[in-house]
Design brief:
191 residues; mainly alpha; Tetracycline Repressor, domain 2
């Protein structure tokens, strides 16, 4: 099997270190050390740490996109799909012992006021994520399993926003109690 390119090594190392430590607490040296490449290699592939931050977000988002497939599974009714989706995300967090949370939420909290490039990229990711959830919400509204008096976009935005708060609380409590509260409120209030 061919060895990953230096750029690929840097992106993989950046996803891990930025996700675990945060953008401001991670220096270029930490990333190149984690990648096992010389520091000069960084500047051959990236204009700045900010540019690598955007690429790292894209890579992380690719993983989130894979998890969205359950929201489109026609074999499962839409409300159980939504429950299964958020539980699957929580399972990922549980396996990581709730240490690092969601890289998208972490970067949004940390970088929205520091980098317009990262903020704009996060806005695109969050909009796409909301649309994916909204599709499932529309199906739930169409089959009568979810309230129709609130528009699907507002529900989807609320679900994503509430989920990111749930992730943040999970990082603090180091358990599934935030998920239990999320599910109880969401699926008794909206369904």
């Amino acid at each position: 099997m061919p060895r990953p390119s230096v750029k690929e090594q840097l992106i993989e190392a950046a996803v891990e270190t930025l996700h675990r430590q945060g953008f401001n607490a991670t220096g270029v040296q930490s990333i190149v050390d984690a990648a096992g490449v010389p520091k000069g290699s960084f500047y051959n592939h990236f204009e700045s740490k900010e540019a690598l931050g955007v690429e790292s977000l894209d890579r992380y988002w690719q993983g989130v996109l894979r998890s969205l497939s359950i929201l489109r599974d026609p074999e499962i009714p839409p409300v159980p799909r939504l429950k299964a989706y958020f539980r699957s995300l929580d399972e990922i967090l549980r396996k990581r012992k709730y240490l690092s949370g969601c890289m998208i939420g972490n970067m949004a909290t940390e970088m929205a006021d520091q980098s317009s490039l990262i903020r704009e990229h996060l806005a695109m990711i969050l909009a796409a994520w909301t649309r994916a959830i909204e599709s499932c919400v529309k199906e739930a509204q169409a089959d009568g399993s979810m309230r129709k008096d609130i528009d699907s976009r507002s529900i989807a935005s609320f679900l994503l926003n509430a989920w990111e708060g749930t992730v943040m609380r999970g990082k603090v409590d180091k358990d599934r109690s935030a998920l239990a509260a999320f599910e109880k409120v969401v699926f008794t209030t909206l369904c």
